[in-house]
Structure prediction request, 227 residues.
Amino acid sequence: DQQVKQNSPSLSVQEGRISILNCDYTNSMFDYFLWYKKYPAEGPTFLISISSIKDKNEDGRFTVFLNKSAKHLSLHIVPSQPGDSAVYFCAASPSYDKVIFGPGTSLSVIP
Amino acid sequence: DTGVSQDPRHKITKRGQNVTFRCDPISEHNRLYWYRQTLGQGPEFLTYFQNEAQLEKSRLLSDRFSAERPKGSFSTLEIQRTEQGDSAMYLCASSSPGQIHTDTQYFGPGTRLTVL
Prediction:
């Protein structure tokens, strides 16, 4: 059973516009959520995170929103840049020692 | 560069052979994780170490898989009697001590295993 879901395998956005990547989770024990970015032939790179006690966290062009009642989080990238083209993984942690990843969304930012 | 390194980057082997992968974490990190990633999926947790102690193993880690971290530094992941279903990217990550959550997991580039 997939505890972290990313239902959009791919997303295309025009440069300068907003990219919104969505993620749903099923386990109410998750208390920490993360987004990782992955380029081809590289390992995932940590992007941004949010604790379950918050509903928003912002870091530059990246903002993560958490809706605990809906068990949903989203990553907003504004403005989108061609260098943002990558696979984005949503991940959740029920404790301090393990991360459970979603299947990823491939973002293409078109110049 | 003092990031996480993995060796080899690519491994092609025949079914039934044994393979071993190595991971060198960031030197001051005491936690080390192994993940497996297949096409179209996110990384799946396999096991993790705190120093030399292996604290958790996923049910994905069958008896043919063994991981060690003998001196709390580098780690090895061995797969015995490889099967075609073992073909995947094997990722290693490390994290720093004192962190409550895993937002500081740093990943290596991975070892891509192909079993023929």
Remarks:
- The interface with chain B takes residues 4, 9, 32, 34, 36, 41-46, 49, 51, 89, 91, 93, 96-104 of chain A (CB under 8 Å).
- The mean pLDDT of chain A is 93.
- The two ends of chain A are 38 Å apart (CA to CA).
- The first strand of chain A starts at residue 4 and ends at 5.
